[in-house]
Amino acid sequence: MALRWADRNLSRLEVIFVVTILLVIFSIFLNRALNVFISAEKTMVQNTIVGMETALRFHALYYEIKGDMDAIRMMQGMNPIELMTAGPEQNLQQYADINQTGKFRGLMIRPPSNYSGEFEGENATSVPKGQWYFDHSDRSLVYHVRSTGLIGSNVIGTDRLRYSVTVIYDDTDQDGQFTPGVEHYRALKVVPHEEYVWRID
Description:
Helices cover 42% and strands 18% of the residues. The protein contains four helices and seven strands. It is elongated.
């Protein structure tokens, strides 16, 4: 009888051990799956920003060649999606004007498929996670984060990343405004409003 109870107790210990191992393996798998999900979202956000800045770069170059620096100044705070939805014919024509060799004729910049449109302040609360939208209230392009992997953000409330088209220039007169013909223009960038990192960083 004593041997049977010993065997039974040993079996219970073995079951507990196996269950513990399985839980550890499941926890590792779940954590890695979450990291893959976050990594995919992070990559999507980064690629979207690269696409926007590419559109900004070529449009700015177009205006630079035409000598219309005031048009670049007016791009401050604009919706960068507008440049990506101008139509491939218009973009390609601009690229052809910039480069007579037709080097860019195979390049098309398309807007993100998860762009919901333009909203005004609180009206954007209905935008689902995983979507981009433009907020007219502060002239910002916003991404509503899908995963919970976003940390270190100063955004209050929901997880939303805010960006604005910003003219990068040498502010020689330190008035905070780009003055064409007076200050040296450097670039147009999509700049985040707040500092943020991803959990996998």
